[in-house]
Specification:
Distance between the termini: 32 Å
Structural class: alpha/beta
Protein name: Protein-tyrosine-phosphatase
Radius of gyration: 15 Å
Number of helices: 4
Number of strands: 4
Organism: Cellulomonas humilata
Largest sheet: 4 strands, parallel
Helix content: 25-40%
Order of helices and strands: EHEHHEEH
Keywords: Arsenical resistance
């Protein structure tokens, strides 16, 4: 089973959006985790409201600090901001996304929908069989 780790600074906005959307899309086929390099005390109420609009409840989530151990659990790490201080990992993708910290729900909605498209593509790529080059 594939494990995907979404990382942002505070684990209160972008990574919670991505993790919530990925968990909803993947069902039980993929393990989804999220963390932040400098986590807040709580997930953004605006982000929670935006996810609730599409039927996703992340109200029980508590932001957590990214550690080398958490990163090691993941098959792929998705950094939701360039330049994050990440533990060494063989497979990191960066999605340069704006920080929605001061946004209202109307502002977060387009970001949520954009992240949903990125998540759908990521999950599709994760489900594709790995192709091995053959000599010929």
């Amino acid at each position: 089973m594939t494990t995907i780790l979404f990382v942002c600074v505070h684990n209160a906005g972008r990574s919670q959006l991505a993790a919530g959307l990925a968990a909803a899309r993947a069902g039980g086929d993929v393990v989804i985790i999220s963390a932040g390099t400098e986590p807040e005390d709580a997930v953004s109420a605006t982000v929670l409201a935006s996810l609730a609009e599409v039927g996703i409840d992340r109200s029980a989530e508590v932001p957590r600090r990214l550690t080398a151990e958490i990163a090691a659990e993941a098959d792929v790490v998705i950094a939701l901001k360039p330049g994050l201080d990440l533990p060494a990992h063989p497979r990191v993708e960066t999605w340069p996304l704006p920080d929605p910290a001061a946004w209202d729900v109307d502002g977060v909605r387009p970001l949520r929908d954009h992240i949903d498209g990125l998540v759908a593509d990521l999950l599709r790529r994760q489900s594709e069989p790995h192709r091995t080059a053959t000599a010929g």
